[in-house]
């Protein structure tokens, strides 16, 4: 175990391993690398909002539930701007929503994808057709990465069936 220089109980957040080495600093905080699983981590990291929580807050914002505190309003405004810029967290949150909905609702992949693009439009207040080429490859790749075998097969089948439409339009 590495010497952390203090009495804190340091362990890997992924595997709970206690065999690690110091591995540089991140934002002035000591970073460690777990020897068991290879994860880089800091002890007691700052709270970071998960993509799904950001997404929920954006849905609430667009539904008219304005944050009361100025700090919260500024945070959601920044998230909305990031959503419109297709930041990776937003793309990931859209993909997670699609995969989760597919698992729970057992609807067709066509319906799931339509709902995903409707969610994009609701949050960003933009027509998804104008941003499809920029966003779709990244979004579908994230969906494929996090989806289960059945979802992956359905998505691949849908993409194969619809790829000729894109080829014919060029």
Shape call: globular
Radius of gyration: 20 Å
By DSSP, the count of extended strands is 3
| Whole-number mean pLDDT | 88
* Largest beta-sheet characterization: 3 strands, antiparallel
Instruction: Trace the largest sheet across and list its strands.
Output: 1-2-3
How many distinct folded domains?
A: 2
Instruction: Identify low-pLDDT runs.
Output: none
Helix content: 55-70%
Supply the number of helical segments: 6
List the helices and strands and how they pair.
Layout: E1 20-26, E2 29-34, E3 40-42, H1 51-62, H2 70-84, H3 88-105, H4 109-124, H5 132-146, H6 149-169
Antiparallel strand pairs: 1-2, 2-3
Quick tags:
3-stranded antiparallel sheet; 170 residues; mainly alpha; 3 strands; 2 domains; globular
Give a written overview of the molecule.
The structure is a single chain. This protein is mostly helical. The protein folds into 2 domains: 1-46, no CATH class; 51-169, no CATH class. It is built from 6 helices and 3 strands, in the order βββαααααα. It has helices at residues 51-62, 70-84, 88-105, 109-124, 132-146, 149-169; strands spanning 20-26, 29-34, 40-42. Strands 1-2-3 form a 3-stranded antiparallel beta sheet, with no helix packed on it. A hairpin with a 5-residue loop joins β2 (29-34) and β3. α3 crosses α4. The longest helix has 21 residues, at 149-169. The radius of gyration is 20 Å and the shape is globular. The termini are far apart. The model has no long low-confidence stretch (mean pLDDT 88).
């Amino acid at each position: 175990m590495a010497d952390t220089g203090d009495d804190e109980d340091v362990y890997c957040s992924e595997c709970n391993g206690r065999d690690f080495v110091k591995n540089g600093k991140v934002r002035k905080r000591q970073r460690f690398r777990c020897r068991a699983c290879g994860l880089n981590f800091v002890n007691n990291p700052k709270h970071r909002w998960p993509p799904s929580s950001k997404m929920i807050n954006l849905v609430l914002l667009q539904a008219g539930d304005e944050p009361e505190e100025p700090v919260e309003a500024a945070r959601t405004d920044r998230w909305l701007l990031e959503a419109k810029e297709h930041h990776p967290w937003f793309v990931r949150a859209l993909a997670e929503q699609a995969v989760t909905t597919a698992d729970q609702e057992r609807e067709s992949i066509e319906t799931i994808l339509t709902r995903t693009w409707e969610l994009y439009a609701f949050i960003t207040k933009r027509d998804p057709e104008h941003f499809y080429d920029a966003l779709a490859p990244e979004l579908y790749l994230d969906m494929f990465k996090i989806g289960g075998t059945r979802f992956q097969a359905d998505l691949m089948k849908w993409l194969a069936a619809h790829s000729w439409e894109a080829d014919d339009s060029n």
